[in-house]
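To make this tangible, this section ends with a sequence with its structure tokens:
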Amino acid sequence: MSHRRAVTAAMSLAGQIDRLERPADVLDALHRHVATIAEVSVFGAWRSSLRRDDLDSYIVGKNVFLHPTVPHTFIDDFFAMRREHGPSVTVRRAWQNRGPFTLTEAMREAKASGRDRWVFDLFAHYGIRDGFYCPHGMWIVLFWSKRILKLPVPTRAMLSFAAELAAFRLEDLMERNRKQFAGKREPALTGRELAVLYQVSVGERADEIARALQIAEATVRTFLKRAQKKLNARTPAHAVAEAMRGLLMQ
């Protein structure tokens, strides 16, 4: 996929996700989008608990969302094996937020340590040959494939950005339903604001972003100003850095 087509597709996804009101619809939109990028499908997304070893804090439909193509028995099997064997290399790596990685890459690390074989056996049992983990703030978005994934850098970046859009929207939807939340919440970034920040992160100027996204240059600057205000950032570059840290996910 060319850079221009990728930008157009990302902008379209941002606009779609920003209007969706159910986590299932967010995952469906993400599922359709990634099918145009690589031979992957959406597995699901979950929000890490501050009590990472408290598996009871993970509840499907509350902070764990699976795509309908994933068998419901998977999550029960995963938690059962997790209780028996402890955290897998994929879980630890995602907690450390070391950036996106494939299941195959994690497997190499597991082989080196001689541990964590159970998670790979579990995925294989369900016909999953490889996966692509995308940690964003407190969220982890996972894609899966029946083939070994050899993702070039641009493809990894596009998948990761799409996952980030979904994670931001899921966080926003969760915030709305968190009745015990006290105090004023800073507004979340919209999909369009994220798309513009992404373009800034790859070095595009305002006029270039406007042409790529087919919007007015003044609109680009408006999105940047809104994002800076929401992130309490002094400059567009500062806003990019704050968004990358996932401060709105904490």
About this structure: Residues 19-176 form a domain with the Beta-Lactamase fold (CATH 3.30.450.80). The first strand starts at residue 41 and ends at 47. DSSP finds eleven helices and five strands in the chain. The chain has two domains: 19-176, 191-249.
